[in-house]
Amino acid sequence: AVNSPTKRICIVGAGPAGFYAAQYILKTLSDCVVDVIEKLPVPFGLVRFGVAPDHPEVKNVINTFNKTAEHKNFNFFGNVTLGKDISLQELRERYHAVLLTYGADQDRELNIPNENQPNVLSARKFVAWYNGLPGEQDLNPNLSGRSVAILGQGNVAVDAARMLLSSVDALRKTDTTEYALEALSRSKVEQVYLVGRRGPLQAAFTIKELREMLKLPNVQTIWKPDDFTDVPAHLPNLPRPRKRLTELMLKSLSEQSSSSSSNRAQRPIPTDKIDHLPAELILRSIGYKSTCVDGGICFDDRGGRVFNESGRVLKDATSKSVDKGLYVAGWLGTGPTGVILTTMNGAFGVAKTLCDDIISNEVDTSSSKAGSEAKQYGRVVTWSHWHRINQAEIKAGERLGKPREKL
Ligand code: FAD
């Protein structure tokens, strides 16, 4: 409408959920400004600090995010933390709608004795370390022993295993940070155990990650045959993706039995109830966890996510009434599962709900709102600042023969 004020929308978190939602909103609402505030000085969330360096093709989603960021009605405010530099209350006064997409940046814990011993680390920290997350550069994982045990069998566990077992020369061509390459080049690790509480039929890694592991040069994947006793019988009834994954595990197992029957080191370890695995380093890889960063958020502590219905945040858990103008998407809304594609589909869905609510006046946009200005936040990183960081990183990478060296 001619006289209605500009619709101001704030997105908290510049990961995939935030960027995909921004893309959808900017395309759908004619007269709107989307401001993204981000805790870190740099954008892209887990695409930059989670996705493994040897998965450069996955990071191509950044091209799409860049296009969104170049839209004239998009603003980036990096180095601004919700709950510290600004409160949710303030954001809600400044914007017609607020979309929370600040992800899951803590870890789930096992809650067992000795979990916090020096050589027990979370895989999240290990991943953050090799990916150059500010604050994790001094993690100093102990790579002086022969064996590492990873607790968990999801894609993150497989990523960590692959990083530990890949040749450093191969990793030098990736954007693995220099300090991590240096440490990995001195690594004595030869053996990585992936420990899961359930069996092959519940393995949480995907077939792509398994294939990569099976093809890793100079690495042999060893299965415990006992784990597979009942598995073939279940094959016909499995859904297709799980069936293909299980078939690949069985194929790899059969190759192991035929080629290695005389090799003592590859025999299954006899078990009763307890396995003893010698490991100088243990990585706990049982999942990420979201936290409540502002008292104004209706947060499900047990589920580790924001209470919501189809992305509309609830006022409280019991009444089920919606807190109008407040939305959640990405891992913060769904829990920390799913790949970027899943996150994208979810974020598009929530962004559609938000736009529908504005178009149908379910969310009031009749009064004008102030939005944000860079100067209000102190040491803010804008998109043009990020451009300069990006250029400097690419230049530093060129000298080292890699795509970038992260600052
Ligand atoms: P995030 O990517 O975590 O983004 C959240 C953003 O919010 C971050 O930038 C964070 O800094 C910011 N933030 C946090 N707190 C605040 C605050 N208080 N104020 C402001 N900003 C805040 N998917 C694939 O498709 N392929 C892969 O190969 C792959 N590898 C992965 C490897 C690892 C180790 C992990 C953990 C995940 C991987 N994924 C992969 C999954 C993918 O990363 C997620 O699906 C996706 O990143 C979730 O997006 P998000 O926007 O919800 O969260």
TrEMBL record:
Q: Which parts of the sequence bind FAD?
A: 17, 38, 46, 82, 331, 338-340
What is a biological process (GO) this protein takes part in?
cholesterol metabolic process
The UniProt keywords, alphabetically, are: FAD, Flavoprotein, Mitochondrion, NADP, Oxidoreductase
The pathway this protein participates in, as annotated, is: Steroid metabolism; cholesterol metabolism
- UniProt signal peptide: none
Gene3D superfamilies in the cross-refs: FAD/NAD(P)-binding domain, NAD(P)-binding Rossmann-like Domain
Q: Which SUPFAM superfamilies match?
A: FAD/NAD(P)-binding domain, Nucleotide-binding domain
Q: Where is the FAD/NAD(P)-binding domain?
A: 8-196
Compartments, as annotated in UniProt: Mitochondrion
Enumerate the residues binding NADP(+): 153-156, 197-198, 209, 338
Give GO MF terms, alphabetically: oxidoreductase activity
Q: Which reaction does it catalyse?
A: 2 reduced [adrenodoxin] + NADP(+) + H(+) = 2 oxidized [adrenodoxin] + NADPH
- Cofactor entry: FAD
Q: Main subcellular localization, coarse class?
A: mitochondrion
> An example Gene Ontology cellular component term from the record?
mitochondrion
Asked whether the UniProt record includes Acetylation among its keywords, one would answer: no
Q: EC number(s) in its UniProt entry?
A: 1.18.1.6
- Write out the similarity annotation: Belongs to the ferredoxin--NADP reductase type 1 family.
Protein name listed in UniProt:
NADPH:adrenodoxin oxidoreductase, mitochondrial
